[in-house]
Amino acid sequence: MWRTATKIVSFRRNFHPLIPGFKSVQTRLRIGTRGSALALTQTRLVIAALAQAHGWSADEAARHTEIVTIKTTGDRIQDRPLADIGGKGLFAKEIEEALLNGSIDCAVHSLKDMPAILPPGLMLTCHLEREDPRDAFVSKVATNLDGLALGAIVGTSSVRRQAILLNLRPDLNLINFRGNVDTRLNKLANGEAVATILAIAGLKRLGADVHARHIFSTAEMLPAVAQGAVGVELREDNARVRDLLQPANHHDTELAVTFERAFLAALDGSCKTPLAGLAERSGTTTFKFDGCVLAPNGRTRINVARSLPIANAKEAHAAGLDAGQELLARAGRNFFVV
């Protein structure tokens, strides 16, 4: 693990020798992130990718980078569904403000938590290679969804997971279940619910995938847009940081996430809209995409699929928009009215 400086929103400047990719002596690369165990783990994975791309030793990585933890509105408010308090953008709001005012140089995000449209002046870059995008069934009483009793209480705050669960098991009693991975596992242990659904990517990164009793196939439970993907956000005008980050970018993940986020944008997706989408390379030049939108009660599901060559981010964005627009036309705008 990189011995990187970590602090809570303090901005002491530490001058050091030239970082490769910077044109003059700079402060450490200040990397903003949420303070959860998963967010910090993902930030250290970004630093590891930068070290590998630039040939830094562990000591050099520690000298060149600084982790700045920022508590977001989404972290502070845990007793209400995100849809009721402003959406998943609340996990990025304060971090993006720090980017725009220059308090940090870049920010690490779980891309499934990012809104489809970024604030003006910000962009995503340096996508880590995607972890397994699927969802995991976690329970102390059953090994899979079919093993739950009639009317069993399942905790999840995701409207996508809620709708898919109701599509598969309309008898289930679904309750709001927010918090980081440890919080949700503790709620499960305390008996607040008999099962929950978590992204297997987060469990793997935390070394907690032993809790997964079953991993849903994508046919059973299509993942959230960009689930399992980690990306770095920065100011569009910060060419020095962009040049530093770019060598660590995983190209296939960038194309898949660009496709999915364009699909999300076409549908004007928010945390109130039960939708899912997954793009994956299926050949030397081809990407396969599956997307869907569901009624909140799970009774109606409309699917869209694509298989086409994608060579760059521009083509991925256009393909995602096209898939989203087709689904929107088939569903009708009234389908998305909450």
3D architecture notes:
- The protein has 338 residues and is of the alpha/beta class.
- The protein has 3 domains: 5-128 and 229-249, Periplasmic binding protein-like II (D-Maltodextrin-Binding Protein, domain 2); 135-215, D-Maltodextrin-Binding Protein, domain 2 (3-Layer(aba) Sandwich), CATH 3.40.190.10; 258-333, Double Stranded RNA Binding Domain.
- 32% of the residues lie in helices and 21% in strands.
- The chain has 11 helices and 14 strands.
- The protein has helices spanning 37-54, 58-64, 73-76, 82-85, 93-100, 159-168, 181-189, 200-205, 239-245, 251-266, 313-331; strands at 5-8, 29-33, 65-69, 106-110, 122-125, 135-139, 153-155, 173-175, 195-199, 214-215, 230-235, 275-281, 286-294, 301-309.
- The strands form 3 sheets. Strands 1-3-2-4-11-5 form a 6-stranded mixed β-sheet, sandwiched between helices. A 5-stranded mixed β-sheet has the order 8-7-9-6-10. The protein has a 3-stranded antiparallel β-sheet with strand order 12-13-14.
- Strand 13 and strand 14 (301-309) form a beta hairpin.
- Helix 10 (251-266) packs parallel to helix 11.
- The termini are far apart.
Write the layout of secondary structure elements.
Layout: E1 5-8, E2 29-33, H1 37-54, H2 58-64, E3 65-69, H3 73-76, H4 82-85, H5 93-100, E4 106-110, E5 122-125, E6 135-139, E7 153-155, H6 159-168, E8 173-175, H7 181-189, E9 195-199, H8 200-205, E10 214-215, E11 230-235, H9 239-245, H10 251-266, E12 275-281, E13 286-294, E14 301-309, H11 313-331
Helix pairs in contact: 10-11
